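so the lab meeting is tmrw and i was supposed to have these ready like two days ago... anyway. pasting both below. for each one the top line is the aa sequence and the line under it is the structure tokens. i havent really looked at them closely yet so no promises
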Amino acid sequence: MATLVAADYVVIGVLMATSSGVGVYYWFTGGRQKSTEEYFVANKSMRVVPVAIGLMVSYLSAVSLLGVSSENYIYGTQYSVINIAYGLATPVAAYFYLPVFFKLGATSAFEYLQKRFGMTTRLIASFAFLLQLLCYTGVVLYAPALALEATTGMSTTASIIGLGLICTFYSTIGGIKAVLVTDIFQSLLMLIAVVTVIATAAVNTGGLDRIWQIANEGSRLEFDNISPDPTVRHTWWSLTFGGFFTYLSLYSVNQVQVQRMLTVRNLQAAQRALWWSWPMASIMSLTLCFSGLAMYAKYRSCDPLEEGRISSNDQLMPLYVMDALSDYPGVPGLFVAGIFSAGLSTISATVNSLAAVILEDYIKPLWRVRGKELSPTTSIIISKILAFLIGLACLAVAFLARYLGGLLQAALTIFGVVGGPMLGLYTLGMFLPSCNQKGAIIGFISSLMFSLWMGFGQPKPPIPRLSVSTDGCGFNDTMIMYRGSDSESSIYTSSRYEHTEENESYFYLYRISYMWYCPLGFLFALIAGWIASWITRWIYKEDLIEIDPTLLSPIVARMEERRRKADKFRNTIAFNKY
């Protein structure tokens, strides 16, 4: 296997130096980070385009570059249907959830929960978010390490530590401005990396249409799976509904994305940024899907995993780059830089957002209990210390990410099992004025327990794969060692719709597609929270209380206003008759 050369390391080094330089620049310019408002929300001075790019790259991270491409290589193109869900969820996030956070004007999205349901709810939800984001960031940090492991032979440990420390450095000293500006540079490198894969495959196979033809011959093209069975991994229903709620949980109530949208001057600018991020994300996602087909065109007759050249399908893209481009010094390094960029953009956003949450939700309230307020200078110092410690925590979690399975499914599982209940909790507050604190807490915790059980319960059945071939590999010792007694068989076959008796023996909840975790968690939280609110009001003889309209979604606030006016009119008529 080819390895990186000096020119490649120079390219990677320039990337690292550029990202670090942006952090240093914003450390010494602007308001010199004299307030947490500048450090966390850039004094609302950011423009729409950088924020839109930031929204896109924080979602389509290194997990997407490695995971989406291998997903289409192994299982086919059905996953691409999820882009329809992105378009459906964007207006809901922009016009039903985002206005509430802009009216609130708080750095931490969890301050909404305190105003609506009390401090206990805020702390429980923010703690769940902390764990969710740390786990996800571990996966994101591990993904670039896979790229280096497959291309240079450098140990995974060294890769994780190097990337994590550099990202922690510029995120800590540069604040949200450094995070968003580096996102622009890093998104460009991501796009170059993916386009390079497709372009080289097109040249080597005879054009984009030939790649499509080869994918069709290999049964990789699938867009029509409408099976209603929730245990089928990817269908129109699971990708549309599951993708809708997953995207909504990320762009409606997730601290990382909400904080980025709060860096622009007003609600209209934030909505424009959200609208712009949707086509950017879909274009990048579809490009990644096609890159998986491009890799299949090269390896269709000699699958590298079956051959034993790689140990994980998530190493397919870096392996392809080294096989196809190692004769061009610096080009593989540019690709690895793109993978690094994808990881850096997500990790830096995590470091900044978690520092904001811990400061606003835990440290400042503790200071107020003591009858004191943190000074701006002290707040900034604490914020940077928190950012540094969070970066180190992400490093620790990254070493556990290898046990979570395929990158794409692991990432979406983490999003789903926490994001669904979280979306349900905020929806209870914004759309159901009758919901109370007890009901919200009961609904959220019970839904979270159910989602964790469903998402991480074991054992789970194996995932059916599409056919791969080793006819073009030749017969060698490596294959004998890797394939064992099965080495004479040149085809590993499996069906998309295979439901064997062995699979049926697994517990039904563990067989449900991971794409359903988020919508099921959302519905569980919504229904359980509403029922618990009704029961607790009946038990404790509580009356309905009037909710501040700014804490309700705009459409619900208008409905409540009309209801109040109608009640007032009826009361006036009744009083006059009396």
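ok protien two:
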Amino acid sequence: MAKATKKKSPKSTATKAAKPETGATPAVVDPATLTYEAVIGLEIHCQLNTATKIFSGSSTQFGAPPNTNIDPVCLGLPGTLPVLNEKVLAYAVKAGLALNCQIAPYSKFDRKQYFYPDLPKNYQISQYDLPIAQHGFLEIELIDDAGTVRRKNIGITRLHMEEDAGKLVHAGSDRLAGSTYSLVDLNRAGVPLVEIVSEPDLRSGQEAAEYAQELRRILRYLGVCDGNMQEGSLRCDVNISVRPVGATTFGTKVEIKNMNSFNAIQRAIDYEIERQVTAIKAGEPIIQETRLWDEATQRTLTMRVKEGSSDYRYFPEPDLGPIEVSTEQLAAWRKELPELPAQKRRRYESEWSLPPQDARVLTDERVVAEYFEATVAAGAPPKQAANWIMGDITAYLKEQKLSIEALPLTPAGLAELIDLIESGTISSKIAKDLLPELLANGGSAKALVAQKGVSQISDVATLEAMIDEVLAAHPNELAQYRAGKTKLQGFFVGQMMKKTGGRADPKLTNQLLVAKLNAEA
């Protein structure tokens, strides 16, 4: 897999004293007395969910039998020529626009010499000095326990297109007996990728995890990547170093791989920060290396030590012409961009006064946001619609392993149910009792209420007569209440709900009950 070419970071001078004046004694800085900060950058590879590969017509289907989604082009057979999948270019440009990047009017593909068993051509077609997009940013939002939102822009160095490599499946366990071996599956070879390289603007595991999540949200909103980390559709490499707070030079960089969740990204970074700071304070050197995150032991382990940058001997790909994006085409692709997650969050907060955390939950998935907006458009108050979707409906979807698009209860049906509560026709308790049937079968909430005869009792005379019957049936409790044990009010409310099957209007029932209880006190 290609990695963006970066300038070598200058050697860290963070633990060296400032240059003394002539004749002065150099000041000695004890690393153990300093406070350190992390400098973090992410390289994220995202598989584009096109039906066919980047330079050939083979399927990109995940989970197909090994070595079935292959063809002469992705196998690198002599005499074959690559042809760029036009949708790959469209998806890459849209991703670049969504990340506020400058789209190159002229870019090209390059050959990266990459000798490995899962890359049959022995080179990878990628982009080197003229990527399709660069100089962008992504805004992340961090919400603390008090609900306070902190926003921060993370720079995007570049976004470029490339082809994925195949996959090695390692088997066998007895190395001494020589019974270990590796199998090559080339189904993934040629699957289109974009690699997105951030600036080293991240300072914590929390920021890095939020950056990766927000990037995934954007790509899924665009429909260009499914972001399934467990399938390798989105793969993240972390570059991390530490330095004294206030220093401008970088420390020795360590790369971390093998993180298959956003929680793992945060935990791996937090562990690595602590490991590096502890080593520096103890006077131990940090080695430039690649480490793996071990989920079982919750720590990073050395994978390989890097002694220098690899020479991939890039040169322009001779079998593919340059890419030119016209102003007209760029404008057309820009118009196709949807409202992105951050835009939706701010609109929900400003137009509908939703708390930031609610807006965040509702906009995490585009289909959930669309369901919510359709429910509000059907007449439901935004906060009530949000509560039902984030609560009972989300719990049902998780239990049934369903996506909200497959839910039989339509947004209009949910809005109808909420309206029955708002108008006092049914109570929230009755609505919760009806919801499982509506979620499973859909249909009209009004019709279901009529069918079951569960409309709320709001007639004053009817409720007063029932309250009299309840009080008469419990003279001891009534006497205790009037003697000062006022907590028994809840007991009488419960008896009323039991008597009416939960159909009594709660607010009105409480008012009438208090009046009756205190009438002869």
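from a quick look at the 2nd one: The two ends are 82 Å apart (CA to CA). The chain is about 35% helix and 20% strand. will dig more after coffe
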